[in-house]
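Lecture 7 notes: from sequence to structure.
We start with the chain below.
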Amino acid sequence: MIRGMDTFIEEKYHLFQKEVMRFNCIDSVLQFKDEYIQLKNERTLDMKINHEIKKYNQYMDVLKDIKFSLKYDKNKEKKKKLSNMMIKFGFNNKNDLICLFCDYDNSLQLKPHISPLQSFDIHVLYGDYHKNKRKEDRLSMNIGYEIEHSNVTLMNIQAGKKTRCGHGSFALKHLECIVQEINNRIIRYNKRFGNRIEERKYIDGSIVAIKKNVTKGDLIRFYKKCNYYEDGKIYKEIKP
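Predicted structure tokens for the same chain:
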């Protein structure tokens, strides 16, 4: 790596500028042109390498978030199976790697004999969660559904400290697939215990502005853009 590249080029430029002003020789000008092009190319390469290193480190941080999420379970000590999870990768508006993480095994527990209300969380990780272990270092989407009804309710979205960069829309993009997994589990449950639970047919929810910098109008535009809006509320039909 070449340090202080801007200063070095500036010094070379002024040196050759003085020679040109003194009409020393045209060779100096041509030599400077060649050296300047070379230094400029090296500076561009240096910037590209730094950019790729930064991108690589951010990717690794997301993987560390996943690893931490797989390990962290205060309710269970048994080893988690990847087959019981949804892990989807994508990129946000800043072209940073993000990951949707949903633990089916820990979240989608059909226990109508214990509670008629089921709830679970979906998270979008972007590389900060494993560092500080704070809720604001990831997006969290809380979902609930009642056994006796055919809807899934989007109860709230906590965007965390990074907002307006595509994390919420990324989570909503995959929410329908998660609801379909709920239906698959309901079908298996019904076959085993009899036709007791109705499959989920739509997603709904109320639009409430919680943060001061996000208005209800902002949220309405957001849900409309994601095709999750109808008649003043969150709504999306689940295709069979």
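Points to note: The chain has a mean pLDDT of 80. Residues 78-237 form a domain with the Aminopeptidase fold (CATH 3.40.630).
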